[in-house]
From TrEMBL:
Gene Ontology terms, MF aspect: ATP binding; ATP hydrolysis activity; ATPase-coupled intramembrane lipid transporter activity; magnesium ion binding
First-listed, main subcellular location of the protein, grouped into a coarse class: membrane
Residues bound to Mg(2+): D399, T401, D817, D821
Cofactors demanded by this protein: Mg(2+)
Binding of ATP, residues: D399, K400, T401, E495, F536, K559, R592, T672, G673, D674, R790, K796, N820, D821
Annotated Pfam families: Cation_ATPase, PhoLip_ATPase_C, PhoLip_ATPase_N
Topology within the bilayer: Multi-pass membrane protein
Gene Ontology cellular-component annotations: plasma membrane; trans-Golgi network
Catalysis performed (reactions): ATP + H2O + phospholipidSide 1 = ADP + phosphate + phospholipidSide 2; a 1,2-diacyl-sn-glycero-3-phosphoethanolamine(out) + ATP + H2O = a 1,2-diacyl-sn-glycero-3-phosphoethanolamine(in) + ADP + phosphate + H(+)
Active site (catalytic residues): D399
Protein name as annotated: Phospholipid-transporting ATPase
GO biological process, one term: post-Golgi vesicle-mediated transport
Length: 1163
């Protein structure tokens, strides 16, 4: 059964971080006849929720999982049995069918958008080898075994094994930000046996068989063999190009397709589109169950009453000659009364809420504040049924690359010889003379050349810019059409930014050879022989290069983090104090810094060191450690040149957005595939991590070490709390949630000292195991910020599910921009995709799509806050108006000897009540009502906690509304029963029968309900007034017309001659004015009491808004920032980010292969 539910998407399969099935698949290259005999999946992918076969079962399952719909299906079916129904046979089943059709149409329209986007991807074009030529082919038509040609900047259409490329030795560069969030370029390389297949004719002659592992979700492993002429060559992850990755800085690659469609590793990391239901909907579902039992109780009471009447009252048996059917009669009576009272559960609620949500979704789509003009990208509500969930989010899980950042590095500032330069000088940093007569401030970059020409730090400036142009592993790419246009291939965007910065300052790096580099200094070429490269790694936090200049001098150029460079400087560095001051200023701006230094090396010292380095390079055991020790020997007595500052461009207003969301009580966790140092740097830049936070970094390599680390940190925090403190008392309750049957408290830990938890992917893998996950989650909930680094797409989803399933009442939101974020987005209660960039696939699978992270602020605080408030009012008012009317039917039944007779005419009263007379008032409340303005919601983000705490709608609120309905219905019915009893004669001689009495009661109920709408509304606009007044006017105009025409036309004959009684009875007009005011007066007094005596926070904010009281909080915020500035500066040295994010190891071997003076094959 589980397998069937999973197959049609009604149940989510359990996922693990990695799963590699046992077995192999055989692929015949350039042998289509043999390949066709094997059955592999095609390359077409679908991210839609439904298809033509699963739509009906999945939709019906979702539609009838709402208990109200299931109840109405039952009552509608029973109602078709005419002898049981006291009302029209089709009064329930037809409206339910209409609602089902409307809902189905909405689902089809929304899911069709996903299928349209899928078709766009499936119809992309790639070149496939046909014979000895490459022909264009659609992605969806690619099959396993095809040889494809992928060109620069294109995405890979499937998982493919590289055969050759335009670069030396079959190298290529790829960007995998869609898979793991990293923007660093990664290197893949063909095996030497196929690297020389650089023409279609050559690759068409390849007769080979690939034996590979079966499709699996492990992004970082791959095992296969390539059999050529009975020889086997191993194929590993370095030869695999994954679907979703992008070819960069490589003109073309030839590759064999090995996995297609939903068997690619990217799609194996995705999950089927889930069926999501909001927290409010779940509450409504449970309350409908309660109402059903209330309804069943009412039906049982009335059926028992009728049974007693049959047994004790001889009138029915003797005069009406009725017979008691015993138990069967009792059962049929129960069904009759269920049908009579069935509208106690409002059928109109479902359709009203759906239409309101659809309208609120359109408001999001048309909001110009959420429109990104640069890319012509509006916000999109792809799943409007989740709109109120936006107002209740407790946790945000965000990707980093492309979501918080722009993937753009810019060289912004430099300190050269103690003098500061900037691309753009801030107003407060302009050059001026201080009280000591010294010139202080920042110069613009253009002054660097002027200072050099004037003899100010001439040699230092030359060495500084030469270092930028020489000390790196960048490869230049010259445009054949425009030889002066040089672009840079770099594994690290930081390095590319620095080399590009040197280019803009007159030091152009344009040629790399296996043993040298050539730069142009003001148009004059200078060649440097590259002797050795000491590569960057996370332990060294620096890289250096040993070069021989044209004059024969040997120099060491080095760049790295300030902490490691400063401790290796010689004692006579006069620029050190000024450079340190500049570094602190750069760090305060959130910039990523590097310190640059050099050293002249005597020839003899270099020869001696070279022997040590060569010995280390040939060491079998611990080679990297030996190389690091060798580099340590020569990286001493350095001369400081200065420092650079690079801005890792954040999306607009990211720090302010995160700060505001955290003020709103939302916890922000960053889940990224990027490396730890980069993620921490961004954490500081976007103000997720602040200098006053205690950082806990978990980089353990085993299950035991991870568990021990987390337990120790948790024990230390517990020990730091006072036994009598409120936090400790709260913790005791929290522990009961952990070790008992309860879930974690989502609000725990918010008042503790700010802490940040940073954990890498390997440790996280252990932390998510059953015996550790509770400890990990408990520690994470105590932290104000959590950053998970180097995580796979499925690990992201597992973290989201961990919080979703184990934190009581918590609503999760995941936001990302790449295919690696799809699983996380689908796992969360609400998924948001960043749209507007080609190839970014998260928006396709998301519930909402926005173009910038900053738009999340208004989407949650304003649209979410309003939607939660509006939907809450729609639900409560719909329950209220139906229960009030149909409880009157119950009181009537108690007073008519349990006859089962209806008090109201079916079409003009029962059916028209929700469809006509009270249709618009709940709708306009749900669409136009604002409990505060958007500006107020943005100014007071703390008001967002109204939704988090379920203030406007919860079980307690629901019970109070039900009690209110009982009170109102009781007063209305017995007031009219007292004023005009059964058998009274009205003006004109018309007796008061049940139909006339019902009209009087019905009209009073309608006026009461409309006045209640007025009390509930927070704002009155034109549509509100028209809907409220128009509903009453429509009834008093249309109903008399229907009561006159209907009986003459042969239907609703029970309304014959009721108009005269309706218009001419003074007590009727007196009653419909008095009764509604009387029953609502209690509500008015109660509302006044709550606002005046026991006001909530939002009541006070409403008064502030109404009276337009000035907000002085910005001054206090400015003061708070000023007070913390000193502490931030003091701690910034310990937390300053450095600008390295390149791959560790292998860079020297790579660049030694390149000779950019040689012409590349055209393919």
């Amino acid at each position: 059964m589980n397998e069937f539910l999973i197959s049609i998407g009604l149940k989510q399969p359990e996922i693990s971080a990695t799963f590699v099935p046992i077995g192999t698949r055989t692929i015949y290259v350039n042998d289509p006849i043999k390949q066709r005999q094997q059955e592999f999946l095609n390359n077409s992918v679908s991210t839609g929720k439904y298809n033509i076969f699963t739509f009906i079962p999945k939709f019906l399952f979702e539609f009838f999982s709402k208990y109200a719909n299931l109840f109405f299906l039952f009552t509608g079916t029973v109602q078709l049995i005419g002898q049981l129904s006291p009302t029209s046979r089709y009064g329930t089943i037809i409206p339910l069918s209409i609602i089902a059709l409307i809902t189905a149409s909405k689902e089809i329209v929304e899911d069709n958008k996903r299928h349209i986007q899928d078709r766009t991807v499936n119809t992309r074009v790639v070149k496939v080898l046909r014979g000895s030529f490459f022909e264009e082919c659609l992605w969806k038509d690619i099959v396993v075994g095809d040889v494809v040609k992928v060109e620069n900047s294109s995405y890979f259409p499937a998982d493919i094994i590289i055969l050759s490329s335009s670069e030396p030795d079959g190298l290529c560069f790829i960007e995998t930000s869609n898979l793991d969030g990293e923007t660093n370029l990664k290197i893949r390389q063909a095996i030497p046996e196929t690297a020389d297949l650089v023409s279609p004719e050559a690759v068409s002659r390849l007769d080979a068989i690939v034996k590979s592992e079966l499709p699996n979700n492990s992004l970082y492993t791959f095992d296969a063999t390539l059999n050529i002429r009975d020889k086997k060559y191993p194929i590993g992850p370095n030869q695999l190009l994954l679907r979703g990755a992008q070819l960069k800085n490589t003109k073309w690659v030839y590759a064999i397709v090995v996995f297609t469609g939903h068997e690619t590793k990217l799609m194996m990391n995705s999950t089927t589109t889930p069926l999501k239901r909001t927290k409010v909907e779940n509450m409504v579902n449970s309350e409908i169950i309660l109402l059903f039992f209330v309804l069943l109780g009412m039906a049982l009471i009335c059926a028992f009453g009728q049974l007693l009447a049959d047994l004790t009252n001889p009138f029915d048996a003797e005069i009406l000659m009725s017979t008691n059917g015993g138990f069967f009669s009792f059962i049929t009576n129960v069904l009759t009364f269920i049908i009579l009272f069935n509208n106690l559960i409002p059928l109109s609620l479902i359709v009203t809420v759906e239409i309101v949500k659809l309208t609120l979704g359109q408001f999001i789509n048309s909001d110009l504040d959420l429109y990104y003009e640069v890319n012509d990208t509006p916000a999109t509500a792809k799943t409007s049924s989740l709109v109120e969930e936006l107002g209740q989010v407790d946790f945000i899980f965000s990707d980093k690359t492309g979501t918080l950042t722009r993937n753009i590095m810019e060289f912004k500032m430099a300190s050269i010889g103690g003098i500061a330069y900037a691309e753009q000088v801030p107003d407060d940093k302009r050059i001026h003379v201080d009280e000591n007569g010294r010139e202080v401030g920042y110069h613009v970059f253009s002054r660097i050349q002027q200072h050099k020409d004037k003899g100010i730090n001439t040699q230092v400036i030359n060495d500084f810019l030469t270092l930028l142009a020489v000390c790196h592993t960048v490869i230049p790419e010259i445009d054949d059409a425009n030889p002066t246009d040089v672009t840079f291939q770099a594994s690290s965007p930081d390095e590319a930014a620095l080399v590009d910065g040197a280019k803009s300052l007159g030091y152009l790096f344009h040629t790399r050879k296996p043993k040298s580099v050539i730069i142009a200094v003001n148009g004059e070429d200078q060649e440097f022989e590259v002797l050795n490269i000491n590569e960057f790694n996370s332990t060294r936090k620096r890289m250096s290069i040993v070069v021989r200049a044209a004059d024969g001098r040997i120099r060491l150029f080095i760049k790295g983090a300030d902490t490691v460079i400063f401790e290796r400087l010689s004692f006579d560095n006069m620029f050190l104090p000024a450079t340190q001051q500049h570094l602190e200023e750069y760090a305060n701006e959130g910039l990523r810094t590097l310190v640059l230094a050099y050293r002249d090396i005597p020839e003899s010292e270099y020869r001696d060191w070279l022997k040590v380095h060569q010995a280390a390079a040939t060491t079998i055991n611990n080679r990297q450690e030996a190389l690091d020790n060798a580099a340590e020997m020569i990286e001493t007595d350095l001369q400081l040149l200065g420092a650079t500052a690079i801005e890792d461009k954040l999306q607009d207003d990211v720090p302010d957005t995160i700060h505001t969301l955290m003020e709103a009580g939302i916890r922000v966790w960053v889940l990224t595939g990027d490396r730890q140092e980069t993620a921490i740097n961004i954490g500081f830049s976007c103000k997720l991590i602040t200098p006053d936070m205690l950082m806990m970094i978990c980089n353990e390599t085993t299950h035991f070490e991870t568990k021990e680390f987390l337990q120790q940190r948790l024990a230390q925090l517990k020990a730091s709390l006072d036994v009598g403190s409120s936090a400790f008392n709260k913790w005791k309750g929290f522990e009961r949630g952990v070790y008992g049957d309860y879930k974690f408290d989502k609000d725990f830990g918010v008042d503790m000292e700010p802490m940040a938890l940073i954990i890498d992917g390997k440790s996280l893998n252990f932390a998510l195991e059953d015996d550790v996950k509770d400890t990990f989650l408990e520690l994470a909930l105590l932290c104000k910020a959590v950053v998970c680094c180097r995580v796979s797409p499925l690990q992201k989803a597992l973290v989201v599910k961990l919080v979703k399933q184990n934190v009581g009442g918590a609503i999760t939101l995941a936001i990302g921009d790449g295919a690696n974020d799809v699983s996380m987005i689908q796992a969360a209660h609400v998924g948001i995709g960043i749209s507007g960039q080609e190839g970014l696939q998260a928006a396709r699978s998301a519930d909402f799509a926005i173009a910038q992270f900053k738009y999340l602020r208004k989407l949650l605080l304003v649209h979410g806050g309003w939607a939660y408030s509006r939907i809450s009012k729609v639900i409560t008012i719909c329950f209220y108006k139906n229960i009030t009317l149909y409880l009157i039917q119950f009181w009537f039944t108690l007073n008519n000897n349990f006859s089962g007779m209806t008090l109201f005419e079916t079409w003009s009263s029962v059916s028209a009540y929700n469809v006509l007379w009270t249709l618009l008032p709940p709708f306009v409340l749900g669409v136009f009502d604002q409990y505060v303005t958007s500006r107020t919601l943005d100014s007071y983000p703390q008001m967002y906690r109204i939704g988090q705490n379920d203030t406007f709608y919860n079980h307690r609120v629901f019970i109070f509304w039900i009690i209110n309905s009982f009170f109102h219905s009781l007063v209305i019915f017995y007031f009219w029963a007292f004023v005009i009893g059964s058998g009274d004669v009205l003006i004109g001689g018309r007796d008061v029968d049940n139909w006339v009495f019902g009209i009087f009661v019905y009209a009073s109920t309608l006026v009461t309900v409309i006045i209640k709408h007025c009390l509930v509304a927070d704002i009155f606009v034109g549509a509100t007034i028209i809907a409220f007044a128009g509903s009453l006017a429509a009834y008093f105009v249309v109903f008399p017309m229907y009561a006159f025409i209907g009986p003459l036309a042969g239907f609703s004959k029970e309304l014959y001659n009721t108009n005269f009684a309706f218009f001419t009875t003074p007590s009727f007009w007196f009653g419909i004015l008095l009764v509604p005011l009387l029953v609502n007066f209690r509500d008015f007094v109660w509302k006044f009491y709550k606002r005046s005596v026991t006001p909530q926070a939002y009541h006070i904010v409403q008064e502030i808004q109404k009276l337009n009281i000035a907000d002085h909080r910005p001054r206090r915020e400015w003061l708070r920032k000023a007070v913390h500035k000193v502490r931030m500066n003091q701690r910034m040295k310990q937390t300053r980010g450095y600008a390295f994010s390149q791959n560790e190891g292998g860079q020297e071997d790579l660049i030694r292969l390149y000779d950019t003076t040689l012409r590349k094959p055209r393919g």
